[in-house]
Amino acid sequence: MKKNLSALLLILLFATGFSQDYKAGIAISACECFKKLKAENTDPEILETKLGFCIINAAEPYAKQLKKEYNLDILRDESSETGKLVATWILKECPDLFLEMVDHEEKNGAKVRSSEMSVSGTVSRIEKDEFIVFHIVASDGNLTKLYWITSIQSGLDLPKEYASLLQKKVTFRYYRNEIFDAATNNYRNLNIISALKMD
Prior knowledge:
The structure is a single chain. With 199 residues, the chain is of the alpha+beta class. It has helices spanning 2-40, 44-59, 63-70, 81-93, 95-114, 158-161, and strands at residues 117-128, 132-137, 143-148, 169-181, 186-198.
């Protein structure tokens, strides 16, 4: 019985050690990748995108562990949860990079907020295609299409509750961003929702 208990304890210690090792490995690899890229290019917009690639490349060899422990599919993660999780490990392994990421995020957030617009009206239609698209009819009768692409500040559990917004009066904050549309083989501007509030 003691042998079995000792063996089980060793297995648990090894598994815990491996779990910690792979997380540290992902963080260190992402840090080294980003520092190398930063030395080659100082454009903050490019660096932000490259950091995402660094995180994915560092996490990819451990995709099975991430799926098992956190239920994250790193290649299909559209919620940025992988990045948020790895950022917590980066904080521990290379805090200087983490602080730089936070500083850049705050500056970028301020830039986005300064270009945000808002519209109030009734949600006349909700389209489900590649993205959720809210059709808003303002009091003057103008129709605005708003796209749910990134996380939205709302105070609601939107994945469960967004359908209940149909025919409700809502105020949306949004910003305009250019995306590449593969169907038309061209760029187009989208109104991307950043926040919403029930009126």
